[in-house]
Amino acid sequence: MADYEAFKHRAEVKRDKFRKTLSRLKKLHDNQVDKMFHEAHERAFAQIDCLTCAFCCRHVGPRLTRQDIKRAAGELRMKETEFENTYLRIDEDQDFVFKSMPCPFLGSDNHCSIYEDRPKACREYPHTDRRKMKQIFNLTLTNSTCCPAVEKILDDLG
Ligand code: SF4
Ligand code: SF4
After folding, report:
1. Residue 105: CB within 6 Å of ligand 1?
2. What is the pTM of this model?
């Protein structure tokens, strides 16, 4: 099992360096930045096995949309309100999030028990292969201290 606290500490130490990397990239053209991120994303995930990590499922967790709730409740043969009452709470931004972490659907082997119907935010995390990366540089900096793949990508681009 990967050591989250050791990772957090290492990533926090690199935070200033990552901030400078992102400031430098911000001056480049949007398409160029997207291409650089997408290539670094591919390189990072070719080396990282998320099943040996699961930090995002243990410590971050998604915001769930109405569509996410509908899909996951359907998979579990539950009514949407039952799903909400059992697993979710409303956070300070009025979004649905899991009541507690680690995520209730994370297995001891780090597999997701609703993988095919997992929330959109889980599918897209850590968002380093999307378009218009420059719009989410603050989030990417935050994610560099939650996700070893983002740390690797920013090391790569630094
Ligand atoms: S729903 Fe699945 S992918 Fe999303 S946080 Fe939970 S275990 Fe992880
Ligand atoms: S997306 Fe990042 S935090 Fe989540 S399991 Fe993969 S490497 Fe770990």
Report:
1. yes
2. 0.94
Query: In this structure, are residues 12 and 4 in contact, taking their beta carbons and an 8 Å threshold?
Result: no
* pLDDT tens by residue, the chain, 158 residues: 569 999 999 999 999 999 999 999 999 999 999 999 999 999 999 999 999 999 999 999 999 999 999 999 999 999 999 999 999 999 999 999 999 999 999 999 999 999 999 999 999 999 999 999 999 999 999 999 999 999 999 999 99
Which ligand gives the minimal distance to the CA of 54? 2
61 lines ligand 2 (CB under 6 A): no
Give the Å distance between the CA of 89 and the centre of ligand 2.
Answer: 23
Token duo for residue 68: 């996410």
- 28 CA distance to ligand 2 middle (Å): 27
**118 secondary structure, DSSP code:** -
Q: Helices 66-75 & 80-87, crossing angle to 10 degrees?
A: 100
Q: Which residue has the tokens 């899991």?
A: 98
